[in-house]
Design goal:
Shape: elongated
Structural class: alpha/beta
Helix content: 25-40%
Order of helices and strands: EEHHEEEEHHHHEHEHEEEEHEEHH
CATH architecture of the largest domain: 3-Layer(aba) Sandwich
Number of strands: 14
Distance between the termini: 31 Å
Oligomer: single chain
Low-confidence stretches: 4-10, 368-384
Number of domains: 2
Radius of gyration: 26 Å
């Protein structure tokens, strides 16, 4: 948190957002919002309180994660701002009272903070009638924005300090939710083994049975984009494709910051496993492999890599449960399952369901699969 009226190097928020990302995630926007609140509260609570009165993207810089406020041309002592005189502001960010003769106070700056939160989470300034989202992942954040941008000052947060406390509560909730997500990594022992098909099937199986799962490409395989192109579908504002009951997010690269989405389970598809690539952390790893004699060596090598990372389960693709399979001793302590052939991962298949159920129970340590239990867990998550 810094105040500055000097020329300093940094990346202006509006350039970062509009030209590079388009918007920030709720978490990132809340992080910056908390820093803005600290600066404004410092000014508003001075012995002779100061109102900034021109909060807008061009007056904010972000340098190594630290937010700096510049350009104090329109700042006024609160005692002077209470009287009507010539006023300035930026359309979209100026509070209603800045256009009238109504006295200005710290709640005028609170309005502008809300407008900045709106801008950071969308990439556009709020219009005369801001649009608020009702999706679960945005509901609380937009409720905070609404609490800043009420037309009547009495209906807004009464200080930047009060707003900061609310944003911090949101941050704490996001951290708790993130910790609750189970991460399952699907990796392939070889190219063309069916890793993406198996991972999509697992994601849709969980979602159909009351435990929403997000399928996520961990590396750029182009599989999801090719799928979307052939199906003629587009992503939503969170960068997710919705296919049937499933949610699928392609690989965008580390530089792209997407809105945070909470799912009880995240299925990460890393494609063919390679020793030189860093694997994501996971609750357990699923190695999709083949059971033919000429495929066993690849399975052994890939399993050794995954065993060094944590709990690994072998999933022999396109094989029936009754198949005879003799594994080498090096794999004797690893649990394995057989996934029979099924043509469409987005449709229910009884035999595949049985495999996915047993695999999930083994990986999570759950002894029984109960749809009711998972649905109750989901409702609790929504309520929180």
């Amino acid at each position: 948190m810094q105040l500055s009226d000097r020329r300093i190097s940094g990346r202006r928020i509006f350039i970062c957002l509009v030209k590079r990302l388009g918007s920030l995630s709720v978490k990132a926007a809340a992080d910056l919002g908390i820093q803005i609140c600290r600066i404004i509260q410092f000014m508003n609570s001075a012995e002779n309180p100061i109102l900034y009165l021109d909060l807008q993207p061009k007056n904010l810089l972000v340098c190594n994660g630290v937010l700096r406020l510049t350009d104090f041309d329109h700042a006024q002592y609160a005692s002077d701002a209470a009287a009507f005189g010539e006023r300035y502001g930026t359309i979209g960010f100026a509070a209603p009272e800045q256009y009238t003769g109504e006295p200005l106070d710290c709640r005028t700056d609170v309005y502008a903070i809300g407008a900045l939160l709106y801008f950071m989470s969308r990439g556009d300034a709020p219009g005369s009638v801001p649009e608020y989202r009702n999706e679960p992942e945005y509901r609380m954040f937009d409720r905070i924005i609404r609490g800043c941008m009420e037309k009547e000052k009495e209906a807004r947060y009464q200080s930047a300090d009060e707003l900061q406390e609310t944003l911090q509560e949101l941050q704490n909730q996001l951290k708790e939710q993130a910790a609750e997500s189970r991460i399952v990594v699907f990796a392939g022992a070889a190219a063309g083994i069916g890793t993406t098909h198996a991972a999509l099937g697992m994601s849709h199986f969980l979602t159909r049975n009351g435990c929403p799962a997000l399928y996520q490409e961990a590396y750029d395989t182009s599989a999801v984009r090719t799928l979307a192109k052939n199906m003629g579908i587009k992503t939503d504002r969170t960068g997710v494709y919705r296919i049937g009951c499933g949610s699928i997010r392609p690989y965008y690269g580390e530089a792209v910051k997407l809105p945070y989405l909470y799912f009880p389970v995240i299925i990460k598809d890393v494609g063919v496993i390679r020793p030189e690539e860093k694997l994501p952390e996971a609750d357990f790893y699923v190695l999709v492999c083949g059971g033919k004699w000429w495929e066993i060596d690849r399975t052994v090598n890939a399993a050794k890599i995954l065993k060094s990372r944590g709990n690994v389960i072998l999933l022999f693709n396109h094989m029936e449960k009754k198949a005879r399979l003799k594994l080498p001793k090096v794999l004797s302590d690893i649990h394995y399952f057989f996934l029979p052939f099924f043509s469409n991962p987005f449709r229910e298949d009884k035999a595949a369901n049985t495999c996915y159920r047993d695999l999930w129970n083994d990986g999570t340590g759950e002894t029984r699969w109960k749809r009711k239990k998972l649905s109750q867990r989901l409702r609790r998550s929504d309520a929180e």
